[in-house]
Fold this sequence. Notes:
- The protein has a single domain (5-222), classed as 2-Layer Sandwich (Pseudouridine synthase), CATH 3.30.2350.
- It has 223 residues and is of the alpha+beta class.
- The strands form two sheets. Strands 1, 2, 3, 4, 5, 6, 9, 10, 11 and 12 form a ten-stranded mixed β-sheet that branches. It has a two-stranded antiparallel ribbon with strand order 7-8.
- The two termini are 32 Å apart.
- It contains four helices and twelve strands.
- 17% of the residues lie in helices and 34% in strands.
Amino acid sequence: xxxxxxxxQHHDFIIIDKPCGVSVHKDREEIGLTQMLAQQLNVEQVWLxxxxxxxxxxxxxLALNETAAATLSNLFAQHLIQKTYIALSEFKPKKxxxxxxxxxxxxxxxxxxxxxxxxxxAITRFTSVSCEPNLRLFVLYPQTGKTHQLRVxxxxxxxxxxxxxxxxxxxxxxxxRTYLHAYALDFCYxxxxxxxxxxxxxxxxxxxxxxxxxxxxIFKDDE
Length: 223
C-alpha cells in the first residue's frame, strides 16, 4: 500500500502531499485515499474537507474528528483558507499577471469553458514568470472553488497547463504528469495562524533547475 507523506499533523487535522494520479474519492482503486490514510494513521476515520483533482498534486487537509471537519469545511465555504497553486505552461499568456474572471459553463467531453458573463463567476488571481524558452511558471490564487477552475483559467489565457490532456493541445508524446500543484495553504484555526507549503516532488519539468530557482525566488519568504 502506498504511504502518503504527511506534511503537518495537528491533533484535529493532517495536511498531506497528495501525489498526482491519486483520486480523493474511491476511484477504481480497491482502497480510497481516506481509507488509506486512516490505516496509515491507525485511526478509524479521517474526513475529507476539500478536494483536489486526480491530476493535481500537493497540499490537502483532512480532519481527524467530526467537529474539526465541520469547522474546516466552513472555513473553506467562506473562502477563509487561501490556496496557492503553481503550474507550468509551454505557452506565453495573453497577459503576464492579473485577474481571470468569468462564469463557467459545461462544455463537451466533461470539460468546462469560461464565459464573458459575471453572474456567479470563477475568480483567479495570477502572476507568471519565464523559466526558460517555452516554459513559464504560473502562481495561481483562486478566490473561488469551481470545478476545473484553474485548468480553464489557464486555457483562457492561451497557456494551457503542461500535460493537461483535457484542456491542452493533443500531442503524440505524453508528458509524465499534468503540471498543477497545490503549493501553499494559509488559514487561521482556533486563533492560530498557519502557512503550510510544499514543493512539488514529481514531474521532470518541476525538477528543472530553472523552475526550482523560479519557485524559490517567488516564495523566498517561506525559506
